[in-house]
Design a protein that fits this description.
CATH class of the largest domain in chain A: Alpha Beta
Distance between the termini of chain A: 30 Å
Strand content of chain B: 5-15%
Strand order of the largest sheet of chain A: 2-1-3-4-5
CATH superfamily of the largest domain in chain A: Cobalamin-binding domain
Oligomer: heterodimer
Largest interface: A-B, 19 and 13 residues
Number of strands of chain A: 5
CATH architecture of the domain at 75-386 in chain B: Alpha-Beta Barrel
Number of domains of chain A: 2
Shape of chain A: elongated
Helix content of chain A: 40-55%
Number of helices of chain B: 18
Distance between the termini of chain B: 79 Å
Radius of gyration of chain A: 18 Å
Strand order of the largest sheet of chain B: 2-3-1-11
Strand content of chain A: 5-15%
CATH architecture of the largest domain in chain A: 3-Layer(aba) Sandwich
Number of helices of chain A: 9
Shape of chain B: globular
CATH class of the domain at 75-386 in chain B: Alpha Beta
Structural class of chain B: alpha/beta
């Protein structure tokens, strides 16, 4: 009998060795991989998300928990067909053209991953064309655009326009964020949403992906 | 293995702050010695004057002049370290060079109602609240009363306040008294709590407090309290409140020299009673504001004087009573926070040991638990600042830098996990939320509102463990005895 409680506890504690061990054990006992993810790994991570939001956990602890969850996921993932993999939605995320700022966007990406979303992190200085190409390739639910600079946030508008021109805009929700970006600006450039911080961005993405 | 081997490698473990050089401290100390030999001080206690005369002082009626050698002898004999324990007999404060502890202040005429904000006379229930809040706040190291309780026999307000504090906090107490009769009552309570006089003497959990009257006057009670403390081997704070330009010269150096001279009288007497008696010099050195005549608790000169007295006391090797976390403001506002923050930081930087008056508002007239809660937060911040930084291979973290490399991040590193909580301080009241979170989750609260919320939560929920029943009974008996004594005094009058 798989000890899901211990597995979730291991995720919360960020103990990746223990999570990997418990996952391997569960797999050995013939527990359904989907169940391991749902009952153990994601369950633990949901607690982490709630605690972080309540101010009871700190960013590095969330990172450790995410790493522990990943250690378990890597063991079970090869055992299931990709179509059976439970996902809370697919996101592509990147910092827009001309902007090399990475950390905030990574934090948002990691928060989304922690919530069970499938995140493709394109990196920094991503041109509108590259975003469009990634949408064609990955078919995400959500495109998340990041900018830290007042001078680069205008590329967000351009990116949305290019998605429109290439006929991709209707298939995705576009969300924007970053220090200079406001809710008003998001409306102005025709984005579908904006969030003030990483945890709210994750909630927004879950909502827009229709999985929450 | 250290990566680097260096010769003459100096470490600043904490941020450096020094106002006076050793030579300057010495000059002030020598000036204080001269004041006592040349000008002398008035001592209104016959028994003390006899002891001083026998030790070689020149006594003319109340005026006592102190030979420099005697004063120096006393300073050398007084301990440079005084350990104060808590109610449960554990070490709570090691008053010695480099250690700074914070607590409230005594005997405010008014107390700020913790719910209505009204300035009113303090009640015994306020003293109980002060004990509980001191017990709950992590950076408040000891308790004082923050308001003389009314509604009790007024000549026993000191005793009632002490009893209320000792029942409501495990932390050490610094306490005042009208006279030595009440000090005997307080001592008896201490004995009941500690389980014997010798136990109390070995592990004192309270300090007594005595205040000479500047300039250079030592009332019978003031000096008698120093004698009482020395006879009973209980630490005492002998601390003048000097007023630059009014009771001392209008110059900072002269003010410190006079204040030191006033504490020295207590030190000499205590050492003559018993060599090695624990005594803490003080105190509150401030200006008289020449526009309003208030004794200002927030002026920049107050901070210079505080740093000065702390440095001179350290030079003398005597633990020192500091003053911080107080304000001239009558309410919880920007002035209150700014003045409190500056004095709390400077007290730590200058190395004052037993720092009091956190929670004093209105230039000392009104005790405020809100100001105390504010002070607790600021002390937390200052303590982190004073911890400075450690520099070694682990903290330089070059291997981690190399592992993460350009463009990476450190959030997921074990090194980050290991250090982030001890390297950084987390506020409980200062707001670091983003605008939207502040607006929604914190309901757009101000610092003052959050202080009130925290205070009210403590008042609603925090209770120190109760003293054993037999101890409580003894305390009751001591209070009954004191009431009978005061009643018979009234009859005689």
């Amino acid at each position: 009998m798989a000890d899901f409680e211990a597995m979730a506890g291991g995720v919360i504690a960020g103990d990746f060795n223990r999570v990997a061990e418990l996952t391997r054990q569960a797999v050995g006992e013939g527990v359904e991989p989907v169940e391991i993810i749902g009952q153990g790994l994601i369950k633990g991570m949901n607690v982490v998300g709630a605690r972080f939001k309540a101010g009871e956990m700190y960013v590095p602890e969330v990172m450790m928990a995410a790493r522990a969850m990943k250690a378990g996921m890597e063991i079970v993932k090869p055992l299931i067909a990709e179509s059976d993999l439970p996902t809370a939605g697919k996101v592509i995320i990147g910092t827009v053209a001309g902007d090399l700022h990475d950390i905030g966007k990574n934090l948002v990406g990691m928060m989304m991953e922690s919530a069970g979303m499938d995140v493709v992190n394109l990196g920094v200085d991503i041109s509108p064309e590259k975003f469009a190409q990634a949408v064609r390739e990955h078919k995400p639910d959500i495109v998340a655009l990041s900018a830290l600079l007042t001078t680069t946030m205008l590329s967000m508008k351009e990116t949305i326009e290019v998605l429109q021109e290439e006929g991709l805009r209707g298939a995705v929700k576009v969300i924007v964020g970053g220090a200079p970006v406001t809710g008003d600006f998001a409306v102005e450039i025709g984005a579908d949403g904006w969030a003030p911080d990483a945890a709210s961005a994750k909630d927004l993405a879950l909502e827009l992906a229709g999985k929450k | 293995m250290d990566r680097y081997v260096r010769a003459r490698y100096q470490v600043n473990q904490t941020p450096l702050f020094q106002m006076l050089s050793a030579d300057q401290c010495g000059e002030i100390y020598l000036a204080a010695l001269e004041i006592l030999q040349r000008t002398g001080a008035k001592v209104y206690d016959r028994q003390s004057r006899e002891i001083l005369a026998k030790a070689g002082c020149w006594v003319e009626e109340e005026l006592v002049r102190f030979p420099v050698g005697l004063t120096e002898w006393a300073v050398k004999n007084a301990p440079s370290k005084i350990v104060i324990y808590n109610r449960e007999g554990q070490v709570a404060m090691s008053l010695q060079e480099g250690n700074t502890y914070y607590g409230p202040g005594p005997t405010n005429t008014y107390h700020r109602d913790p719910y209505t904000g009204e300035r009113r006379k303090a009640l015994l229930s306020d003293t109980e609240n002060v004990g509980r809040v001191c017990d709950a706040l992590p950076h408040i190291d000891y308790a004082m009363d923050l308001g003389t309780p009314t509604g009790v026999t007024n000549t026993l307000a000191d005793l009632y306040a002490f009893s209320a504090l000792v029942k409501n906090t495990r932390k050490p107490i610094v306490h005042w008294g009208f006279d030595i009769e009440q000090y005997q009552d307080i001592l008896d309570i201490g004995v009941a709590v500690a389980g014997g006089l010798d136990k109390l003497q070995q592990k004192p959990f309270f300090c007594l407090y005595s205040e000479p009257s500047s300039p250079l006057l030592h009332s019978r009670e003031a000096i008698a309290k120093a004698v009482f403390a020395a006879q009973n081997r209980i630490p005492i704070v002998y601390t003048p409140c000097v007023m630059l330009g009014a009771t001392t010269p209008a110059t900072l150096a002269g003010t410190i020299a006079m204040g030191v001279a006033e504490s020295l009288v207590g030190i000499v007497v205590s050492q003559l009673i018993r060599e090695g008696s624990p005594i803490i010099m003080g105190g509150v050195y401030a200006i008289m504001d020449m526009k309003t005549t208030v004794f200002s608790y927030g002026s920049p000169e107050f901070h210079i004087l505080q740093a000065g007295i702390a440095e001179v006391a350290r030079y003398m090797g005597i633990p020192v009573f500091g003053t911080a976390g107080c304000t001239d403001s009558h309410t919880m506002d920007g002035q209150a926070a700014g003045e409190a923050a500056m004095s709390i930081l400077i007290a730590a930087q200058a190395g004052a040991n037993l720092v009091h008056d956190v929670g004093y508002t209105g230039s000392g007239s009104c005790g405020s638990l809100e100001q105390l809660v504010l002070g607790d937060e600021i002390i937390g911040m200052v303590r982190r600042f004073m911890r400075g930084m450690v520099i070694d291979d682990e903290t330089l973290a070059l291997d981690v830098v190399d592992k993460v490399g350009p463009g990476g991040h450190f959030l997921g590193e074990d090194h980050t996990m290991k250090h982030f909580k001890s390297e950084t301080w987390f506020p409980t009241l200062f707001n670091r939320m983003r605008y939207h979170a502040w607006k929604e989750e914190a309901k757009g609260s101000s610092m003052g509102e959050r202080i009130k919320d925290k205070l009210h939560a403590i008042l609603a929920n925090h209770q120190a463990p109760a003293l054993p029943g037999d101890v409580l009974q003894k305390i009751e008996q001591i209070i009954i005895r004191a009431e009978e004594r005061e009643a018979s005094k009234k009859k005689r009058r």
